[in-house]
Design a protein that fits this description.
The complex is a heterodimer of chains A (about 500) and B (about 375).
Chain A lengths: L9 E5 L9 H5 L5 E4 L4 E4 L9 H5 L5 E5 L12 H13 L4 E2 L14 E3 L20 E3 L22 E3 L3 E3 L9 H14 L3 E2 L16 E5 L8 H6 L2 E5 L10 E3 L6 H7 L7 E3 L9 H14 L6 E6 L4 H9 L5 E5 L8 E2 H6 L4 H14 L7 E5 L5 H10 L3 E4 L1 H7 L21 H4 L4 H25 L15 E3 L4 H7 L2 E2 L3
Parallel strand pairs in A: 9-19, 10-11, 11-12, 12-15, 15-16, 16-18, 18-19, 20-21
Antiparallel strand pairs in A: 1-4, 2-3, 5-17, 6-20, 7-8, 13-14
Helix pairs in contact in A: 4-14, 8-10, 11-14
Chain B lengths: L10 E10 L5 E2 L1 H7 L11 E6 L9 E7 L2 H14 E8 L13 E9 L1 H7 L3 H15 L3 E5 L4 E6 L3 H7 L6 E2 L1 E9 L12 E3 L2 E7 L4 H8 L11 H15 L4 H8 L4 H5 L3 H13 L9 E7 L2 E6 L8 E5 L2 E5 L2 H7 L4 E4 L7 E4 L9
Antiparallel strand pairs in B: 1-10, 1-16, 2-9, 3-8, 3-10, 4-6, 4-7, 5-6, 11-12, 12-13, 13-14, 14-18, 15-16, 15-17
Helix pairs in contact in B: 1-5, 1-11, 6-7
Classes of the chains: A alpha/beta (about 500), B alpha+beta (about 375).
Chain lengths: ~500, ~375
């Protein structure tokens, strides 16, 4: 207390007229905010532990609870904001690096919100997706430069392996360990039902989930956790994770407390040991090394799996993408600076990397300028929040989008941004069996299917409005976009005109 | 106002074509007639024709039709052509002064052959060389525009109604085995001659009615292969797609149609295995060359033509026959204007390619 004291960020407001002291809130809160006072027969709260995950609010049967931002503030200062000062106190207290979870929450520009979509009027017809076919299927992977014919003159199938998706969206990498068994199972079931893919992340693939292989992308990251021959051949593609948008330039750290039971076995490391992924791959110090890993993985899987190389969006991303497109990789995944994480140093999450919209536009253009856009597919992620974000991304040049935060929200995440504590009350970012079982994979997968089905409908409506009845002709169709309230340079990088032009 | 190439200008249109399967040559009179009943489909801001088999005496040379803004442009252009080709003949394209057509540029015609020594030193085939030179002129040479560059064929176009453009160019004096025509209804253009249609590259010409929604996706893809969409029109990009798929990739006409107006995935899934695999392959490999939005196009080429509608059939197009001739037009009235007795008039389904080829050996009217 005293100099170390930081006033709690939230207040627990309990309407005592409604509270029936059923103690649901107490049982549901892994942070132990709610306490039952046996003597006075009332519920009390220690709001200093509250992370505002809304679990108690959602489960209170009488709607007696709400969580509000505390109005006990320091003296206002536009330079030294409340948050900035409190971070200083925390570091002065602990001497440690600040940790955060989920994506960069700060007020940087969101270019998706500064881009508007076109629609047909008079000169060509809009198309009604309820009456006409509207196609969203995509194939990800390298496309051959030239056709070949057999002796009879028939076309030879010289296509390298592709990923087929029913819509241009996939669930992006979240490792088993960082999220729960039930969360992974929900994603896998939903991906299979939807005809899309989910991604194992860097923690290996639980043996129960091999059955979802054709809808699974297996990841190989710098820690190589859980990587073995059967694993590499289990999915429909392999992703080499070079970087992550939330923490470009650094590795990962899953604390030993989460390396328990199946997580330990799946990762192939002893229980209780920290799982530390190095910042770089120690066999990749340059682009030619990447090429060797790409081909090592292709050899290991007999050239049957497309290889994805995932990188964080950093300043010279276009040149990096060009290098990757010539490395033998089939797909490039780019993760923007808003991308989520189970845990990242706050300073890195909030200050490193660039917006995915700019990275995507720059990479798509660069690959076209070099005539190698067809060598690779482009998948982008790092805060795709809605179907209109997907449509804008595809029109800027993406083949498909990765979503993770939106998927977690569908599973119940309330974006309290404290995944790193492992006490996720929604059963997602935790390995505590009591908490994990709160997420029912049947319900979870159903909600994911609902979300993606809704997005697919909306994508079709937006496409139909533009007179486009196949997602292929939206890809890279930047004439369908206009900027609003952004400067010449931003328009130039995005490769779009301003609204009214 | 900005002209074609400085801004994207969509337009509605009328199209029409006639071809003799026997390779019999006919004058341009009938095709001009066909555009009259479709007068209201144009708005006087562009009309044009393509004719095949019209230059049998120069069939070995590429016939370049060129607009020049003034004499300086013309001299500069001729200097460059002499450096790039052997120029066999150089002349004005004959025109007729009529009140409906005004403000014409200098309209020249050159019959040229690439120099074989240049071709071998650049390791290019003849056609690719011609394409590069024409692209260079149209991209870099201000006030000069090559609007036709095939062998034994030519495009003729101007600002005006198509029937007037036909009279202006004295098309009744030419004889060809195949004619296509276009009347334009652009929604905003100052009226630039080069912006009229058909659009031509080598012996490929396209007349097109529609406004495609896939334009920028198609453009940004095709520009990877050295094409420059200088005019920013649908017709231009479709011509480049046809050239890329037919000449550079070596696809057949039917395969090309399956790329441009690809069948829906559901249709593909119901096909027999071999066909299904072929269509899936083409749609996957050339996915960026799918064209969506309304269009009816007639692709002319040496020895034939192909008519194609978008896969939803969002633009009208009918086909009819009489004796050795096949007629295609936006409206039946246009066909009747060419041949009142035309038979078997039908409306091809969306995405159904209508391909008509002249019997081998007959394309020069022998």
């Amino acid at each position: 207390m005293g100099v170390e004291f930081i006033y709690p960020e939230f207040e627990v407001i309990r309407n005592t007229n409604r509270c029936i002291t059923c103690r649901v809130c107490e049982r549901q809160c892994a942070n132990e905010v709610h306490i039952y006072d046996d003597e006075n027969k009332v519920m009390l709260a220690d709001e200093s532990k509250c992370v505002n995950c809304q679990r108690c609010v959602s489960l209170c049967p009488t709607r007696a609870l709400k969580i509000v931002k505390s109005d006990c503030r320091l003296r206002e200062n536009a330079n030294w904001t409340d948050g900035t000062i409190k971070e200083i106190y925390k570091q002065a207290n602990s001497g440690g690096v600040l940790l955060s979870s989920m994506g960069n929450p700060n007020s940087f520009p969101v270019y998706w919100d500064k881009i508007l979509i076109n629609a047909s009027q008079v000169t060509n017809p809009s198309i009604d997706p309820l009456r006409e076919p509207m196609e969203t299927k995509v194939f990800l992977g390298k496309k051959p430069s030239f056709i070949e014919r057999d002796k009879k003159g028939n076309l030879k199938n010289n296509l390298t392996p592709q990923i087929e998706l029913s819509m241009p969206v996939m669930f992006s990498a979240m490792s088993y360990g960082s999220i729960s068994y039930n969360a992974h199972k929900s994603l896998a079931m939903a991906a299979e039902n939807l005809g899309i893919c989910y991604n194992t992340g860097e923690g290996g693939l639980h043996e129960d989930f091999y059955v979802y292989g054709k809808n699974t992308i297996v990841q190989v990251a710098s820690g190589r956790f859980g990587v073995h021959e059967k694993y590499l051949n289990a999915g429909c593609a392999i992703e080499i994770k070079m970087g992550q948008g939330a923490k470009p330039g650094i590795g990962g750290h899953l604390p030993g407390t989460k390396i328990v039971g199946d997580v330990s076995r799946t990762r192939m490391i002893p229980e209780g040991t920290d799982a530390i992924s190095p910042a770089p791959h120690h066999d990749i110090y340059s682009i030619e090394d990447l090429r060797q890993l790409v081909y090592s993985l292709k050899e290991a899987t007999n050239y049957k799996k497309p290889i994805i190389v995932k990188v964080a969006a950093v300043h010279n991303i276009a040149a990096i993408a060009s290098g990757i497109a010539r490395s033998g990789a089939d797909i490039i995944a780019i993760d923007g600076f808003r991308g989520g994480t189970g845990a990242a140093p706050t300073r890195i999450r909030d200050n490193v990397g660039i917006p995915i919209e700019l990275a995507l536009a720059a990479c798509d253009k660069r690959l076209r300028d070099e005539g190698i856009r067809n060598n690779v597919s482009l998948v982008i992620g790092g805060s795709i929040r809605s179907s209109s974000d997907v449509v804008k991304a595809v029109a800027l040049g993406a083949d498909a989008c990765y979503v993770a935060t939106a998927a977690l929200l569908a599973l119940g995440c309330h974006l309290c941004r404290t995944c790193q504590t492992g006490k996720c009350n929604w059963g997602i970012a935790t390995q505590n069996p009591e908490l994990v079982k709160r997420l029912n994979p049947e319900i979870g997968s159903k909600r994911l299917i609902n979300l993606m089905t809704a997005w697919k409908h909306e994508i079709k409506e937006l496409m139909g409005g533009m007179g486009i009845n196949s997602i292929e002709t939206l890809r890279g169709n930047r004439l369908m976009l206009r900027g609003i309230g952004i400067n010449e340079k931003e328009l130039e990088i995005l490769g779009i005109s301003h609204a009214g032009e | 106002m900005l002209k074609e190439g400085q801004i994207r200008i969509p337009s509605g249109c009328a199209i029409s074509a006639v071809i003799s399967k026997e390779g019999k040559r006919m004058s341009g009179e009938k095709i001009i007639e066909s555009m009259k009943p479709m007068h209201d489909r144009s708005n006087g801001l562009g009309g044009g024709f393509a004719a095949y088999g019209i230059y049998p005496e120069y069939r070995q040379q590429y016939a370049l039709h060129v607009f020049c803004n003034d004499k300086i442009c013309k001299d500069e252009c001729e200097k460059f052509l002499k450096e790039s080709f052997e120029v066999v003949k150089s002349e004005y394209i004959p025109t007729r002064k009529i009140p409906e057509i005004t403000d014409e540029p200098i309209i020249r015609r050159y019959f040229v052959s690439p120099l074989s020594s240049v071709l071998s030193s650049m390791q290019l085939d003849e056609k690719e060389y011609v394409v590069r030179i024409v692209t260079k002129i149209n991209t870099e040479m201000k006030g000069v525009y090559v609007f036709s560059c095939g062998k034994n064929m030519g495009a003729f176009k101007a600002v005006g109604f198509p029937e007037d453009v036909g009279r202006f160019y004295k098309l009744e004096e030419y004889e060809g085995y195949c004619w296509t025509a276009h009347g334009r209804y652009p929604t905003n253009t100052p009226g630039w001659w080069g912006g009229a249609h058909p659009f031509a590259l080598l012996d490929y010409t396209i007349v097109h009615n529609g406004e495609i929604s896939s334009y920028d996706a198609n453009r940004r893809f095709i520009e990877m292969f050295g094409y420059k969409c200088n005019l920013q029109t649908d017709t231009e990009v479709i011509t480049y797609i046809a050239d890329y798929l037919l000449r550079r990739q070596g696809l057949t006409l039917n395969e090309t149609a399956s790329v441009i107006a690809a069948p829906f995935w559901k249709t593909i899934s119901n096909k027999p295995r071999a066909e299904r695999e072929k269509l899936t392959y083409l749609r996957t490999v050339f996915s960026s060359l799918l064209v969506t939005g309304p269009f009816s196009i007639i692709l002319g080429f040496e020895g034939g033509l192909m008519a194609l509608n978008d896969r939803l059939k969002l633009r009208s197009m009918v086909v009819g026959e009489y004796e050795d001739k096949v007629y295609i037009a936006s409206e039946e009235a246009a066909i009747r204007a060419m041949e009142p007795l035309a038979q078997n008039i039908y409306s091809p389904a969306g995405g159904e390619a209508v391909i008509i080829k002249v019997k081998d050996g007959d394309i020069n009217g022998r």
